[in-house]
Amino acid sequence: MRRLIWAAVLALAACGQKPAPEPVALRDPKGWISSAVLFDPARFAGTWYVAASGVPGCAGARQDWVQDGQGWRLSGTDCSGGRAMTASGRVALTGPGARFTPDSAFGREPVWVLWMDQDYRVAVLGTPSGHFGMVLSRSLPPRGDLMNAAREVIDFNGYDVRRITR
């Protein structure tokens, strides 16, 4: 009888937990990807808004990148999984160029800044695995010409542009 009760408890516990959605690649991870070489962390710091993302419902989400003596603190919305989640934790600039390693956000995958305009108004972030890609902007909506340039960068890096949406 105890075994039956124990089996029922385990079965109910397993039913209550939904597995996290598996990330779906937005680009072929075997293809080339490039990160920005010229990158000024102090200019990148601050508030960004998600202008486009591979995660439905993330457009408009806020992210705060705060630079300190130990790297970065990140807060806001993490748009890297199958759904929007809370982003928090530390992010270390690992280079070369604009490459980050998060301690908890973005599925702990390396994040690359693929491009940003010279005035740091729009930036494109992605991962070599292709599990995540997004366009950040300092304000919404971003300027049309900057958004068009961001789409070209997304396409150049092998992303399915149709899946990175507003």
TrEMBL record:
Source superkingdom: Bacteria
Any Pfam family matching the protein: Lipocalin_2
Domain Lipocalin/cytosolic fatty-acid binding: 106-165
UniProt xrefs under SUPFAM superfamilies: Lipocalins
Protein name: Lipocalin
Species: Paenirhodobacter populi
